[in-house]
User: Fold this.
Amino acid sequence: MAEGAMMTTWQRYLRRHPRGVDTTVALVLFVVAFPGSYAGVDHLAAPPHRWIGVLLAGISCAALLWHRTRPALVTGIAILCATGTALAGYVMTVLLLAPLMAALHSLAERTDRATTRNLTLAAVALVVGASMIGGPTGESLALKVIGPAAYLLLPAALGANARFRTAYLESVRARAEYAERNREEEARHRVAEERMRIARELHDVSAHHLALANAQATTAALLIRSHPEQAEKMVTALGETTTAALREMKATVGLLRQSDTPDTPLQPAPDLAQLPALLDAHSAGGLTVTLTTYGEPRPLAPGVELTAYRIVQEALTNVAKHARTSTAEVTLTYAHDRLTISVTDHGTGPDSTPGAGYGLIGIRERALSVGGQLHAGRRPAGGFEVTVELPLYSHPPAEDTP
Assistant:
């Protein structure tokens, strides 16, 4: 643990002081190249003018101070210095080639492939050619050609590998950031969808119960003098309606507080089994609703079950608000893979229009959300009919075909 922390500290220090690092590297390479200016190989003595090797080694090492900003220029200077050293009769060992090797590594790490390839081949050709021309006559071919070529190709390959690794790590980091952004966008999208769903639930609950409460209150006001007993029943039903509205609104809004109060019990989502209670509530408000079921009832996906209930609820609310009628029919038809819901009325009032309010828009959106379809319009015999076909299991919304 302490070693890892120490390495991290050293890495931070090196990143914050690049000039100091470059100066240290240049001095170390000059110290490495300095012995090569005074030594020969085996029986081959070093050239008599030793100051030439020291001077050229110093120039190439000093040029390395700018290898981060101008790698191609620094490499060109190092190539010229190494070529001059070889022409001066020095044996081109790894000691004398160390500054050029460092320059080639930096070049490969910081420039494109074409620049690295061209300068590396130029360095090999010039240094090897100068070594063959100006090198000691007794020097072997391996020391004149194979050795310098290998010494110069190796750092270029290592630098290119370092560049590829850096590019790979950058691509991995970019992909990770892109994935993180996508996750955040997906989370925001899901939050927006959930808010829309809750808003739709609140609209359905409030619109249905308020319309029903209004009908019950109006009926009670009309019957309070002539039929006080029926008016009392209406007032009792009105209290039950408002209580149910408060209970459903509390359950819906409670979804927004789950993270704060996770232990709060939530009410189950309404389903088709609660349709009789819904129809009884409308009957108490003066709208007699008949429920008819065809086919064998089949299990529905939870989302489709809630959608079916809300569609019936919204359609009956529209009838109570706009149709000016006292009767309505709800028909459920089960097929092998679909459920067809029909809500019809015999209203003749001017408010019995398809565009009245936003009820049909909400019904259409709910049907499309589970892969269903809506058909609504006036009936030839009078009144209005809303027919919705829903799959037994929810599917993605079908795209409109031209």
The two ends are 66 Å apart (CA to CA).
